[in-house]
Amino acid sequence: MKKLDVTFRGTTDTTGYLFSLAKSLSASLRCSQYSAYADNIVASSGFAFRMWVNGGSLCPSATSIWEFKKQKPWVENGGLVCEYVERLWGADAIEEERRLAAIQIIKRSIDNDVAAVAWDISGCEWGIVAGYDDETEMLYTLKINGKEDSIPYAKLGKLDLPILSVLTVTGCTDKPADEIVADTKKLAVQHLRGKEWCDNAKGLAAYDALIEFVGNKLTADTAWNLEYSLGTYAALKWYAWKFFEKHKEFALADLYKTVYDAWKGAFDLKRAKDVTDTEVKQQIADLLAAAKEAETKAVEAMETV
């Protein structure tokens, strides 16, 4: 048996809704020998710039509909080396093979004192696998809400939403910081211009879908869905702002501070006011429009690199 001491302490989440994969990965790194990468990785993997919105209902699952296998190259953009195993829908024939492979990379990672990140540990959200016990065949997990739990080896990839996605960090490279920044800009532009696969509105187009929803579809029954979307993306934009600030890209940092402030302002309004009120809806829509304007300028600036 081996179990690592992993927590979310020190991982910045300004809304309480930071995207679960990004939050789990950052926490895993912070509690390992790769702690220097913990804050950078949310942006350098591109997740600080990604938005996926289901304009019909703002279903929270929209944040988890993208090409999972891209995790490995996206995270490696930040100067890390990863292992990755997945098994998606319609692949029952390889379920056992992939589950066993995932358990092996989890165990290797934990033996190297780095917790793994896995899908559906937290109830249709990513979470952390921090330990294992071969005698009892149990994995020790940390849910996105900070609660510790455990699951049998046999249940990995077969929980609430039965697909498998496991990412581990196995090392780092000597990729220079300026290359990481340049390639992060390319990742950001790729997503924001709608070039990454997703079934829902994505990138800059997500703004229009969200603004239209707020104006025409928002009800008391879907108010929490709005809170989830605002909270998820506001918390991510903070990392974009701080990434560019850290790397002395001050023009982009200023733009992303504006983007973050607008998203966070919209989130705070949702938490404080009645979002079925017409005036409040308009205020939220105006803040999102301001964020879109600033982020569009940021994309245009990043495209010139």
Any descriptors?
46% helix; 9 helices; 7-stranded antiparallel sheet; two-stranded antiparallel ribbon; globular
Spell out the blueprint of helices and strands.
Blueprint lengths: L1 E2 L16 H11 L9 H5 L7 E2 L17 H6 L3 E8 L7 H17 L4 E3 L8 E7 L4 E5 L5 E5 L11 E9 L4 H16 L8 E2 L2 H12 L6 H24 L3 H23 L5 H26 L2
Antiparallel strand pairs: 1-5, 2-9, 3-8, 4-5, 4-8, 5-6, 6-7
Helix pairs in contact: 6-9, 7-8, 8-9
Summarize model confidence as the mean pLDDT: 97
Task: Summarize the amount of helix as a percent range.
Answer: 40-55%
Spans of at least 5 consecutive residues whose pLDDT stays below 50 are none
Structural class: alpha+beta
Rg from Cα? 19 Å
How would you describe the shape? globular
Which percent range describes the beta-strand content?
A: 5-15%
Gap between N and C termini, in Å? 49 Å
Number of helices: 9
The profile of the biggest β sheet is: 7 strands, antiparallel
- Element-by-element helix/strand order: EHHEHEHEEEEEHEHHHH
The count of DSSP E runs of length 2 or more, i.e. the number of strands, is 9
What is this structure, in a nutshell?
The protein is an alpha+beta fold and 305 residues long.
Describe this structure in words.
It is a single chain. The chain has 305 residues and is α+β, with helices and mostly antiparallel strands. It has helices at residues 20-30, 40-44, 71-76, 95-111, 177-192, 205-216, 223-246, 250-272, 278-303; strands spanning 2-3, 52-53, 80-87, 116-118, 127-133, 138-142, 148-152, 164-172, 201-202. Strands 1, 3, 4, 5, 6, 7 and 8 form a 7-stranded antiparallel sheet that branches. The protein has a two-stranded antiparallel sheet with strand order 2-9. A hairpin with a 4-residue loop joins β5 and β6. The radius of gyration is 19 Å and the shape is globular. The chain starts with a strand and ends with a helix.
